[in-house]
Amino acid sequence: MSKKIEIKTEEPVNLMREWKLKHWEKRIANYNKKENMEPGKINGFDGTFAISQTSTIPEDLLGFLNLHFNAGKKRRAKYSLEDINVALNEIWEGPGSMEKICRLEMEYDYDLVHEEEEV
Predict the structure, then answer these.
(1) Is 96 left (phi over 0), alpha (psi -120 to 50) or beta?
(2) Are 43 and 37 in contact (CB under 8 A)?
(3) Following DSSP, what letter does each residue of the chain receive, concatenated?
(4) Rounded Cα distance, 115 and 33, in Å
(5) For residue 30, how many other CB atoms are within 10 A of its CB?
(6) What's the predicted TM-score (pTM) here?
(7) pLDDT tens digits, one per residue of 7-57
(8) In sequence order, which residues have a C-beta less than 8 Å from that of residue 21 and are 6 or more positions away?
């Protein structure tokens, strides 16, 4: 006779969180490699953002921006290029800032997951 295995509802969330944390740490470690800190790479950027077209937003920042402006909202927020530049320039501290961006994105993502659990 087969035994029924009882799975607590919190276990899948914990497994997902554990997987996500490993994913984020790998991503951060990759950004912090010496070759990714060079000028010309997003993590080597040492300046002020002045994005003038949506097509020029670095792909590596899209997930962060989406969560930054939309986290916790039922509807997608409308935001301008000026809003994007202000947000990025407030956070960006020069080369190596992708770790900070990743950690903020991770926090937003974590908050969303736990907000959904509470509903």
Answers:
(1) left
(2) yes
(3) -PPPPP--THHHHHHHHHHHHHHHHHHHHHHTSGGGSSTTSGGG--S-----SGGGS-HHHHHHHHHHHHTT-SSPPP--HHHHHHHHHHH--STTTHHHHHHHHHHHHHHHHHHHHH-
(4) 34
(5) 13
(6) 0.76
(7) 555 556 677 778 888 988 999 999 999 999 999 999 999 999 999 999 999
(8) 106
